[in-house]
Amino acid sequence: MKYPVLGVLILALMCELSASAQAVKPSRPPSAIPHANRKKVAEPVTPPTPVAASAVVPNWLPSTNSLQPSATILHDLADTKLDVRFDWAKQWLLGTAVLTLRPHFYPQSQLVLDAKGFDVKSVELMNGSRKGRDLKFSYDKRKITISLDRLYQRTEQYQVRIQYVAKPNELPKGGSEAITDDKGLYFINPLGTDKTKPRQVWTQGETEGSSCWFPTIDRPNQRMTQEITMTVESGQKTLSNGILVSARRNPDGTRTDTWKLSQPHAPYLAMMAVGDFAVVADSWRGKPVEYYVDPAYQHTAKRVFGNTPEMMEFFSKKLGVDFPWEKYAQVAVHDFVSGAMENTSASTFQQQLVQFTPRELPDVTYAGSESVIVHELFHQWFGDYVTTESWSNLPLNESFADYSELLWAEHKYGADAAAHVQQSKLRNYLEEAQMKREPLIRYRYNSQEDMFDRHSYDKGGRVLHMLRKYVGDEAFFASLNRYLVNNKLSSTELAKLRIAFEETTGEDLMWFFDQWFLQRGHPELRVTHSYENSQVVVHVQQVQDTLYQPVYRLPVTIATWNGNQATEHRILVTKADQTFRLSVNQRPSLVKFDDEGVLLAEIDETQSQEELLYQLSHARGYLQKYQAIQGLRNKSADLLVSATFRNTLNDSFWATRVAALEGLRRYRGAEGNAVRKDLQRVALNEKNGAVRATAIRVLSAFPNEDFSEVYSTALKDSSYVVTGAAIEALSHAPTATTRSQIAALQTTTNPALLTALSNYYGLNGTLDDYQWFLQRSKDAPAEVLYVMLENFGVLMQRIPPIEREKGIQRLETLARTHPQMYVRLGAYKGLHELVASMPALKATLQDIRNKEKDSSLKSMYSLIQ
């Protein structure tokens, strides 16, 4: 599964909220990412994920939570057959489930099934007969406890049939940072009253949501074959796991579809989706590959999903295990409660991640869409074909899916693109590590939902990268093949992965798995070097707190450069303080520790300006160039540095050009005119929209300078990213024609422009723009509302109090009732902007805080002073 609605991005928000006791000023939500999630916006408009206030203080102590072992297996769930129909008006599922089971080892006379919030009509023993035999049962709205007719041995299979009604909306509100709701079954616009979205039904099973819509043993160490029969309206499309084996038209105008999965999978991977989808057909080696999207996006679906068959081929060959399921479908649904979900043979995606208009498509980055598609596809091997036995072992699913994003970027787009993924993922983890440091494999947690964090995703992927570089590519992929083949269609744990690598390489790798998977934290290294007597002396200190973190064993490469040649030296760091002596022929122009950027570590490496300039001009790839630019940013006034940055604007990789632009942001040196001309050239002529947008933002950072012609041209740019950046620039430097130019964009539906427009009107708007906020706060996407509502409050500061009533009511209603916590937060911040001029609102804000049920959101409220 990808990260939630928009990713685990807490730390930046907490810093934003706690940095000052003043009212929080309008700003974009913090951006990074997973598992999570990307939007089609100028810069990722990333609403925050909740976090308790106590998490601001790093807590790296061993967990005091209770031990969370794998579920004890009393029965093996062999097969599930469901026959369901939907009551759209009541938002109920009317179902019949036939479960085939057998005792796992010990004889059993009782069966306990997970079944949340049902009306259970009957429970019968079938055993091959059409007419069942009633069984006694008890039900507490969470579990059905069934008394079987006799004691069954492990060699004896039996069937139970349960008739029930699932009522997901009557379940208590749940969810987590990763999965914002846990009721399992969702009716979207069931009565068709919302004209902005279609009527849909879809499910979300991870972690234990499947038992909200069918009775099962809802644990990841169960596996079942499956058949799901859905009766739906004749015009609706259906999707489930496996293949469609029959479609029957009924006399009442409905249609009954039956989907069958012939290989077993875990119950949490079961899925259904029903709606008015356009189905775009593709194929891979004769297997159906299909893309289910809103009809409006059927003509762009292949441009978004079209690399899927190539991905399937790449991973099948790389792993030595062909894509294991009968088909692969990908469906985009509305209001999904996570970024995406890897249901077996049928992944579900949040529609904002994969549905784009033709104009929006050029702005879709690898990180914004394709990496999500890659991630869910790789889960079909790691997560679906081989499944973690417990949520404690979740990284065996998520770390691999996370790492697949780098593997595909490397294969399809090259080494620089892979390095950019590596950098982004490492940054994600290190941000989270400021708040918490947990072992990757965690047998103690408060809730299984806690496992869905940047540790399981970003840290885990980086650990796999280190393992790959340590054993080598051939051994790495041979080990993955062994792991998949030996554990296919079963559940697994960390030891099985370690054994697969040890059997392949012949090396005892307990040291690696222990320090990286079973212990918390990461190395914090201080590295210096000097030259003496034809030797480079490298001093490496591990300065992390080692009370609850290890002193790491770190195989690492150091490169020494002379002329245009690099010599690599392999060293092994094993102590907290170590010195290494490397033989060289002459004083090197550059000494680069961890020259490939493999280590999952914070590295403070002392380098001179001359070394950094050499590194930037001789670097082998993106990571070294980026590091050099970062090291030189504060010296951009130096003519040699600025000239090197300007030259780097022609680099072949777009992210390197972005870094060079950011390096010139602070430039105030003698080459001012030349720098500005280069920036304007890039803003107007660069081929990559993200680079053009960055150039505009850098130009806007030069105080008291007029680049309005560039901004006006950018308002007509084909890229929404660029247009959004121009609006942002004009927000801080409006001209006489700005208002009329921006007014032409007011009706946009693009999140980038909506966010930028709200910032512009928040800073420059008048009473004339009040109605725009009232209207767009009704139809804007949730991720835009987080920013827009605070800006609405800023605008209202400048209009007469008598005119504010409708706006205040709108903000208060959203702060109290909107289902997305980050929208409630944005509305609260909007109201808070008005407290200085309307002190009576303090009582309203206090009441909102008191009645808010989300404890983490209440913690955020306490930081807004």
Automatic annotation (TrEMBL):
Region (Disordered): 25-48
Residues annotated as domain Peptidase M1 membrane alanine aminopeptidase: 307-516
Keyword Signal listed: yes
Class of enzymatic activity (EC top level): hydrolase
EC numbers, comma separated: 3.4.11.2
Keyword match Repeat: no
Cofactor: Zn(2+)
Substrates-to-products reaction catalysed: Release of an N-terminal amino acid, Xaa-|-Yaa- from a peptide, amide or arylamide. Xaa is preferably Ala, but may be most amino acids including Pro (slow action). When a terminal hydrophobic residue is followed by a prolyl residue, the two may be released as an intact Xaa-Pro dipeptide
Top-level taxonomic group: Bacteria
Stretches assigned to coiled coil: none
Keywords, comma-separated and alphabetical: Aminopeptidase, Hydrolase, Metal-binding, Metalloprotease, Protease, Signal, Zinc
A matching Pfam family: Peptidase_M1_N
Protein family according to the UniProt entry: Belongs to the peptidase M1 family.
Protein name: Aminopeptidase N
Species per Swiss-Prot/TrEMBL record: Hymenobacter endophyticus
